[in-house]
């Protein structure tokens, strides 16, 4: 059962170690723990990456769209339990496709579904949308690891 939630930035900051300028999830809209997530990233023209990518035609870098999807996936993985010593790392990206550019003013809707979990490794089917259009899709592998001292 999908829980409509409104996980705001304060809760996200408690679950993810990322901070500005690399925190790329603004709000969680829907969450079905250990099944799927729908989150939001507001793309604003004052983000630092637009200064160089590209000055005359600002486009959100594809790697940051993938990072946004990975952060949403981490929130899904942490939806039921997380201890303070756990970190979540990218382990692989397969079948990544970019279909349309993401521009300043867009609302990037981040979707991820758990495909499998085994021995601390998560596999997600993820896709990002702007409006009704899929702008990026990928299979993500992520690893949950203990922070080493």
Notable features of this structure?
alpha+beta; Thiol Ester Dehydrase, Chain A; 7-stranded antiparallel β-sheet
Might you state the CATH topology name?
Thiol Ester Dehydrase, Chain A
Q: What is the N-to-C succession of helices and strands?
A: EHEEHEEEE
Number of domains: 1
Structural class: alpha+beta
The CATH homologous superfamily: Hotdog Thioesterase
Can you summarize the main beta sheet?
7 strands, antiparallel
Q: Which CATH top level class fits?
A: Alpha Beta
**Helical percent range?**
10-25%
CATH architectural arrangement: Roll
User: What is the straight-line distance between the termini?
Assistant: 39 Å
* Strand order in the sheet with the most strands: 1-2-3-5-6-7-4
Number of helices: 2
Describe the structure in brief.
The chain has 149 residues and is an alpha+beta fold. The protein is built from 2 helices and 7 strands, in the order E-H-E-E-H-E-E-E-E.
How does the SSE layout of this entry go?
Blueprint: E1 3-7, H1 9-15, E2 27-32, E3 36-42, H2 62-77, E4 86-98, E5 107-118, E6 121-130, E7 133-146
Antiparallel strand pairs: 1-2, 2-3, 3-5, 4-7, 5-6, 6-7
């Amino acid at each position: 059962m999908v829980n409509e939630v409104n996980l705001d930035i304060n809760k996200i900051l408690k679950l993810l170690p990322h901070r500005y300028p690399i925190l790329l999830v603004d709000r969680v809209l829907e969450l079905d723990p250990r099944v799927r997530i729908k989150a939001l990233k507001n793309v604003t023209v004052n983000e630092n990456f637009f200064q160089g990518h590209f000055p005359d035609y600002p486009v959100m870098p594809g790697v940051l769209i993938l990072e946004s999807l990975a952060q949403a996936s981490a929130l899904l993985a942490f939806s039921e339990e997380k201890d303070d010593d756990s970190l979540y790392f990218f382990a692989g990206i397969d079948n990544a496709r970019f279909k349309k550019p993401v521009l300043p003013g867009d609302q990037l809707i981040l979707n991820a579904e758990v495909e499998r979990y085994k021995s601390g490794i998560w596999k997600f089917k993820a896709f990002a949308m702007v409006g009704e259009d899929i702008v990026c899709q990928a299979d993500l592998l992520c690893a949950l690891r203990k922070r080493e001292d």
